[in-house]
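Entry type: protein chain
Record version: 2
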Amino acid sequence: MYRVSAKLLVSIALASALLAGIIVACGQRILERRGVPVEATAIADPSVATDEQNNIEIYRTYSPGVVNITTTGYQQTIFGPYPSEGSGSGSIVDERGYILTNYHVVQGATQLEVQVENDKFPATVAGTDRDDDLAVIKIDPHGRRLITVKLGTSQGLEVGQKVLAIGNPFGLQRTLTTGIISGLERPLRDPAAHRTINGAIQTDAAINPGNSGGPLLNSKGEMIGINTAIQPQGGGVSIGIGFAVPVDLAKRIIPEIISKGYVSRPYLGISATTPLNRRIARQLNLPVEEGLIVGTVARGSGAAAAGLRGAVAREDIWGNVILQQLGDIIVGVDGKKIASTDDLQNALQDKRPGQTVEVDIIRQGSRTTIPVRLSERPPEER
């Protein structure tokens, strides 16, 4: 019979524990290299975890679900089409390979490549929503299980709340920056599309070119927004004012984008509209000083069926445009005042195709109300 000292037993126990830890760590690395996900580390309660530990845990858990998107397209030059490249970020939101990003990241792209950690995959556009600057793209993970970014909510946010941004600024993959919510309900204007995203989240977390489409996370690691734009300065570098599309907008449209490839939006059937101002109103001796002058009415639209009228003009022999008939002036929709294209967009945003709206107009100096049945926005207008 052998006698073993207590000190030796303790040494053996410690060695065994150390060896077991090494085996587990090596096993995890092997599984990660083979693309088999390891159970994500739970995020500690941010009210008790240190700020540094909270940052580390969120990054370790969710950064594998943030991808780098490289786009290839063609830019028209005087020498003909010229290939151009762009980059952005995205969040894996479905294990089947669906990735949420910005519309402007994939706009005009003829080829997409997505980098998930160290692996690259070709991607296709599943659908887009230009109004909210959102898009969903798709990769085939070839059996690899993907880490997804958890969708939270943009309701109940507070100025001063901690946020984290993960993305690929200037191509630097999976970069983490932190900050706070600096403002809420900001209107984010897209001058190219003449549309405004309402309710954008303002943050001072550093967002730079390449961050577009990546997640803005709260201290629980939940996505509350999609990083979209920065306040421009020379060189397009962050000056501490960035904006994110609220995640609740994305949650509402992702299923429709995946199933249909687009978001079904209401269409009144008018275009080439001009906001009325005091100067124009006085020149034309109009009874109102605010409204939206209808330029053209689309054939077959609800506006055309209801009898809305657009402007009529002709050219004289010298090429001058002479206005023969002023278009109807829209001053209200379902009781909401209309003075701009943004007002009209906001009045229709909660409507659905097939619904009827009451449109208040000024025609030949008189006010009248016309019911218009909304149709679905045609492809060329999406």
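Comment: The first strand starts at residue 66 and ends at 77.
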